[in-house]
Design goal:
300 residues, mainly alpha, 51% helix
């Protein structure tokens, strides 16, 4: 039986040089990787396992303005002892074992809560003391470095500078008028406070005077609506000017309100039934009212 396998002659192995390899051929001669240099095996960096999720921010067990949770009163109110009527209720022989088991579990929970609160309070005080000690030490170190005098080597190696040109540390500028300026400011503050109190008193008096015309009930509202909208006698006639809403016309604009405020008189827009301007009598009455208010110190 003939075998059809053909044995090929093996070619002599010629090691490829680094210069003729495709990777080495791409490296230019000026590159530091042009000459192969054996390098030590780099150790693998230890990566911490990635934990999914985000831990919540721990809450403060002992808040600053809260009760003292390690005090006997707080522990007694948080972990009260069982009441007598609850103990007597579970003395049934059929459920005595289960009741005693539940009682032991409740006692363990009470003891664990008391011990944990006391231990956590002790840990908090110890941690706070350590942090406060480190903070005081760091502050003292920074203060000493800040207030330390200039080193001798720095003084000898620095350029020549006049002693008067050297900036002094913690120098307070002279202020001979400080007391007079503070006294003037105190006087201004007192004057402003008195003015605010006077303004507030005047506003309260004005509110008291105007409170007589406030609408507080439904019957008063109905009377005002009937008088303003339905009462025909409120229209203007030869003797008086009416108060009906159809007689007063359009409401005044912002420009007219600002212009009337400068002169102290309310200027109305042209009315629907009469096109007369503010009469001299109304202007005179308004001025006399203002004079009376200034003289009496109250709202008329």
């Amino acid at each position: 039986m003939w075998c059809r396998l053909k044995i090929r002659a093996q070619r002599p192995h010629t090691p490829a040089t680094a210069a003729h390899s495709p990777t080495a051929a791409a490296i230019p001669p000026e590159s530091p990787k042009f000459i192969p240099i054996p390098r030590p095996v780099q150790p693998q960096a230890i990566l911490r396992p990635w934990v999914k999720g985000v831990l919540p921010v721990p809450r403060k067990i002992f808040p600053e303005h809260g009760p003292d949770k390690a005090s006997p009163n707080y522990l007694a109110s948080t972990t009260p002892e069982p009441l007598p009527h609850n103990v007597d209720r579970h003395r049934d022989p059929r459920t005595a074992d289960f009741a005693s088991y539940k009682a032991r579990q409740a006692e363990n929970r009470r003891n664990n809560l008391r011990e944990s609160l006391i231990e956590l309070r002790f840990r908090k005080e110890r941690t706070d003391s350590v942090v406060a000690a480190k903070s005081r030490k760091k502050q003292a170190f920074n203060r000493a470095r800040r207030e330390a005098p200039q080193r001798e080597d720095e003084r000898l190696t620095n350029a020549t500078v006049l002693q008067s040109d050297i900036p002094r540390r913690h120098t307070i500028l002279p202020d001979p008028d400080r007391e007079a300026r503070l006294a003037a400011k105190r006087e201004n503050v007192a004057r402003h406070t008195v003015a605010k109190e006077e303004e507030r008193r005047d506003m309260l008096h004005t509110l008291y005077i105007n409170a007589g015309t406030f609408i507080t009930t439904g019957s008063q509202l109905d009377q005002v609506v009937d008088r303003v909208f339905d009462n025909v006698e409120q229209f203007t006639n030869d003797e008086k000017r009416g108060q009906n809403i159809w007689n007063l016309g359009f409401p005044e604009t912002v420009e007219e309100m600002l212009g009337g405020k400068a002169s102290g008189v309310r200027v109305n827009r042209p009315k629907a039934l009469d096109n007369a301007l503010v009469s001299r009598k109304e202007l005179h009455d308004h001025r006399m009212t203002r004079i009376g208010e200034e003289l009496t110190g109250g709202k008329a």
